[in-house]
């Protein structure tokens, strides 16, 4: 698990999905750690994709208490890298503040969004 003082980053598996769990504050201090963490998760997802894996990376943002423009930049970097690697990046369980920030920035239709962390049935 990676940590900076106000940000907790971890990974998990949920059925056939890889999940990047993000909690805490994403700002000018912590966004670089998020950028590196998501890039590593995306590369791992691309390298491990097989018949038992969807090749998706779900970013669980339910624990995010604050996000500013630097956080949006980190998510955009991850999205562009995901496209280059052929990985589907999905943002899930967005808190109201993060959802609002995406809407204000005009990015709510750019990302694949899910109200909860998806599970295969």
Describe the protein's architecture and organization:
By secondary structure, this protein is α/β, with parallel strands linked by helices. It has a single domain (2-114), classed as Transcription Regulator spoIIAA. It is 36% helix and 34% strand. It has 3 helices and 6 strands. It has helices at residues 31-48, 69-85, 96-104; strands at 2-4, 7-14, 17-26, 56-67, 88-92, 112-114. It has a 6-stranded mixed β-sheet. Strand 1 and strand 2 (7-14) form a beta hairpin. Helix 1 packs parallel to helix 2. The longest helix is centred in the first third of the chain and has 18 residues, at 31-48. It is globular. The N and C termini lie far apart (28 Å). The relative contact order is 0.19. The mean pLDDT is 89.
Distance separating the two termini: 28 Å
* Silhouette: globular
Largest sheet: 6 strands, mixed
CATH superfamily: STAS domain
DSSP summary: helix tally: 3
* Fraction of residues in H or I helices: 25-40%
Spatial strand sequence of the major β-sheet: 1-2-3-4-5-6
Strand content: 25-35%
Any idea how many domains?
1
The ordered string of helix (H) and strand (E) elements is EEEHEHEHE
What is the mean predicted local confidence, pLDDT? 89
The helix-and-strand class reads alpha/beta
The first-level CATH class name: Alpha Beta
Low-confidence stretches are none
Radius of gyration over all CA atoms, rounded: 13 Å
At the fold tier of CATH, the topology name is Transcription Regulator spoIIAA
The total count of strands amounts to: 6
By CATH, the architecture is named 2-Layer Sandwich
